[in-house]
């Protein structure tokens, strides 16, 4: 069963090496050798990571003579960000409701303390 594009994007983003590659490509197009330089993994392993990113549509690889530059394709990231944004709004609404509840509790506590303070001064 073929995975949907969003699932493919999140699967590609699940690996820290692939996220680091995307972060490097956000600075501009570069060669596979330059992408592999900061990692202590084999060139075939880098190639596998690049293929995963290509299948997810997150990068493209061109050809200029001997040079095969990789380029970031941000559209799938925008789709993933849109998906996550829905849940950010969900949590923001939950936190707002929790904040309102805590403010009511604090107001009730303050009111009770003031009421107790007035009662204890009357008894003296």
Quick summary:
Residues 1-92 form the HTH arsR-type domain. The chain is mostly helical and 124 residues long. 69% of the residues lie in helices and 5% in strands.
Q: Can you describe this structure?
A:
Helices cover 69% and strands 5% of the residues. It contains five helices and two strands, in the order H-H-H-H-E-E-H. The chain is elongated and about 95 Å long.
Question: Can you tag this structure with a few keywords?
Answer:
124 residues, mainly alpha, two-stranded antiparallel ribbon, 5 helices, 69% helix, elongated, ArsR-like_HTH, WH-like_DNA-bd_sf
Look at the helices and sheets and give the structural class.
Answer: mainly alpha
| Percentage of residues in helical conformation | 55-70%
What is the radius of gyration computed over CA atoms, rounded to a whole number of angstroms?
A: 27 Å
The total of helices stands at 5
Relative strand content = under 5%
InterPro entries: ArsR-like_HTH, HTH_ArsR_DNA-bd_dom, WH-like_DNA-bd_sf, WH_DNA-bd_sf
GO molecular function: DNA-binding transcription factor activity
Protein name: HTH arsR-type domain-containing protein
Pfam families: HTH_20
Helix and strand topology:
Elements: H1 5-13, H2 16-25, H3 32-36, H4 43-55, E1 59-61, E2 70-72, H5 75-123
Antiparallel strand pairs: 1-2
Helix pairs in contact: 1-4, 1-5
